Amino acid sequence: MPKLKCFGLVCVIFAALCPLAAAEQPVESVVKIFVTSNKMDFYRPWQSHGISSSSGSGAIIYGQRILTNAHVVSDHTFIQVKKHNDPKKYTAKVIAIGSDCDLALLSVEDEDFFEGTRPLEYGGLPKLQDTVTVLGFPQGGEKLSITEGVVSRIEVSSYALSSRKLLSVQIDAAINPGNSGGPVTQDGKMVGIAMQVLNSGQNIGYMIPIPIISHFFEDLEDGEYDGFPMLGINYGNTENDHLRSFYQASDIEGGVIITKILPFSSADKKLNEGDIILAIDGVPIGEDGTFVFRGNERLTLPHLISNKQIGEKIEFSIWRDGQAQTLFVDVEKFTTLVPPPDHFEKPTYFIYGGLVFTILSADLIHAWGKRWWEQGPVNLTYFIVGNGRLNAEMDQEKVVLLNVLSDDINVGYHGQGNEIIESINGEEFKSFREFVQLIDRAKRTSPYTIIKNSAGGKYIIANEDIDAIDQAIIKRNNIPARFSEDVGGWLGIEPAKEE
How many domains does the chain contain in total? Predict the structure, then answer.
């Protein structure tokens, strides 16, 4: 993921050290972004889908930077930007990406680009029924588009790019393809970035609000993006009187009960299943999991977690075993069992005996198309939408047999694929790296490698001359290497140097 080399000027954004006069329509602060991209094929992880072109919008901010959506520059290979009423395009590059919050930061080396522009001032979080203006370059024309709408809802909701639930603002202004990344303003100041629409409704659009943008920049102050924290719990309401009585909590107010602690998360070994969270950093939690926000509004408790930076402490007031307790949890980086979409990294893969293996990820599941839950195999979707997501086995990763490259060595297995692999020669593993290392050891110490799937089926591969056989298989199928670069590093081999 890209790292920032210098954020000197950007760090003053929220300090308002360079105030500028507000403008009703800051058109000189809006740019059109042209993106050439090449998306990786997660079902054939050694190749990409090919070159495609798209466009979006962006906002010029302090420090001669451009703020836009991460999804606007997904899988990019080349980026250009153009100012309003300027025919010239300038080359730009990505210097920071936050996939979880769908934000990206661009730079333009040619300083002439910024002549005649001005950085946008930042406003605050708008209120319900406030009027806002959306600026950008949506489909339907080449000129800058300006539309108005009303703030209709402020809540924690799912971001389409990452499925992370973060603070968002719903507006009824027209937002169409191409608007993404453009500024949403109020009284000439930016209060958000246009992000997504709900296709099943009418005039339902969403913007990323200033608190999320502020968090993004504060995170980047050390030159690297860590992301929004996750506590790692599932919780339920405490509305049922019998439930409260069972947990000796009949006389306490509010609170939600922890129903699951996710392995490897910040909450792991700190909080317990059955704990009732009464308050977070002194903010009381209602029995429905909401808290008071800005006087007469309410938000759900995940906002109190995501509002923190990675590495900070959170104070929890809990009810445990009939007693009130206070404890502190350090929020650290956390990856779910099925990694969320990552539009900027090449997939990991490994080929052995013509069997193609990879890591179960959201990108792989989405490779079946927009209705992946209908097209993908049930045993895979179970781990992202079913109870498998709770990771009861405490695995770090799930290994998937994608498909089989037909050869004499794997006759009888042709057409197999989309299966979870559980063991190698009777030994279980917790990660893809362990899986690869077990196969490598079996190749050197045993005449056969026995690969067992989650249904009990076995693939038995003879290890004699296996390297030469695999090399012939990948050559015949025009595959550049038997494994991805990261796997080569685990084995001490450079894939490109294989003969």
Answer: 3
What are the start-end ranges of the H helices in 146-277? 210-219, 241-246
Residue 478 lies in a domain: yes
Query: Is 343 annotated as catalytic?
Result: no
Contacts of 323 (CB under 8 A, 6+ apart): none
In a domain, 342, yes or no: no
Strand partners, 399: 359, 421
Active-site pick, 75, 100, 102, 470: 102
Q: Which of 198, 222, 246 is the last residue of a domain?
A: 222
Note the pTM of the prediction, 2 decimals.
0.86
**Is 180 among the catalytic positions?**
yes
Count CB atoms within 10 A of the CB of residue 68. Answer: 30
378 strand-pairing partners? none
Q: Among this protein's residues, is 361 annotated catalytic?
A: no
Q: Are strands 458-462 and 448-453 parallel, antiparallel or unpaired?
A: antiparallel
191 located within any domain: yes
In a domain, 337, yes or no: no
Q: Which of 71, 76, 215, 303 is catalytic?
A: 71
| Same domain membership, residue 135 and residue 158 | yes
Which is catalytic among the residues 180, 265, 266, 484? 180
- Residues 319, 363, single domain; the answer is no
Q: Which of 276, 302, 330 is the last residue in one of the domains? A: 330
Averages of pLDDT over runs of 10 residues in the chain (499 residues) are 39 38 72 95 92 96 96 95 93 95 96 93 95 93 92 94 93 90 95 88 87 97 94 95 95 96 93 97 97 93 96 97 96 86 82 96 82 68 80 87 96 93 96 96 96 94 96 96 93 61
